Amino acid sequence: MAQEGILLGMGNPLLDISSVVDDDFLNKYDEMASKYNVEYIAGGATQNSIRVAQWMLQIPGATSYIGCIGKDKFGEEMKKNSKLAGVNVHYYEDESASTGTCAVCVVGGERSLVANLSAANCYKSEHLKKPENWALVEKAKYFYIAGFFLTVSPDSIQLVAEHAAANNKVFMMNLSAPFICEFFKDALEKVLPYMDYIFGNETEARTFSKVQGWETDDVEEIALKLSQWPKASEIRKRTAVITQGADPVVVAQDGKLKKFPVIVLPKDKLVDTNGAGDAFVGGFLSQLVQEKPIEECVRAGCYTSHVIIQRSGCTYPEKPEFN
């Protein structure tokens, strides 16, 4: 049974403003909130994963989340949305910047994202160090941070990573995007030794390989190399988990490879791919924090991503049907 506050996420909270649009619209997205029927969803990669884990766990406050928003209408929308999801959010509220947003434009089930980080970009480690926020770190046994947060507050990530290593807790990150692997290479390499789990998709894995000069595009080989990157704490071996869309999930752990098929979805059932990767991680984490075997973690990840792609945005029904 997962207890309260067991899982803490830290990242860039973005209010997803999601709508189905036409091709013409993608060329001029500004009019979105006024012209189209939009949905507001508490988004940003880490927050999506935490919300999905919370949904799967069905224990109020099992998860916590830290990030920066603005003091405005969208910030209020975000707080309302997260509380409804059962996540214990401790937002840093910036006086000078507006809440970060992400326009999610869906055409034929495929998404285009236009992100404006705004306040999400203003997170400061001083907020993390405040006793009421650091208490969330002390309480949690598992930490998850998307690679995107490396662009905002690497010192906050380092504080949590070092705490996890010193206290035998589980620290996890995501490669998140090819540009993180390319342009934030040093920041990523600095924190990689602390990662007990590293997530990514096939494109991100291949970009990481290219940047490292590994000269391989083979996802299985890259997953093994990622899992074998030197670790700060030798208490547990690193696990690399690479998703490949409709192709099998690759897991590298202790020099061994496992592949898990995903749940196949007919094209006509696909509504929106937005948040599929985040949802996979959320499902995975929901079982990991209950100390379930890796097979169960992946099965849950496949289930949650399967649910999310059949709905608009990173949303879910009232209760999970996962047994």
UniProtKB/TrEMBL annotation:
Sorted UniProt keywords: ATP-binding, Kinase, Magnesium, Nucleotide-binding, Purine salvage, Transferase
Catalytic activity: adenosine + ATP = AMP + ADP + H(+)
Highest taxon of the lineage: Eukaryota
Active site per UniProt: D278
GO molecular function terms attached to this record: adenosine kinase activity; ATP binding
GO BP, sorted A to Z: AMP salvage; purine ribonucleoside salvage
Carbohydrate kinase PfkB domain sequence ranges: 29-317
Biological or metabolic pathway of the protein: Purine metabolism; AMP biosynthesis via salvage pathway; AMP from adenosine: step 1/1
Cofactor: Mg(2+)
Gene3D superfamilies assigned to the protein according to its UniProt record, in alphabetical order: 3.40.1190.20
EC number annotated for this UniProt entry: 2.7.1.20
UniProt-listed Pfam families: PfkB
Biological role stated in the UniProt entry: ATP dependent phosphorylation of adenosine and other related nucleoside analogs to monophosphate derivatives.
Family per record: Belongs to the carbohydrate kinase PfkB family.
Name of the protein in its database record: Adenosine kinase
Organism: Citrus sinensis (Sweet orange)
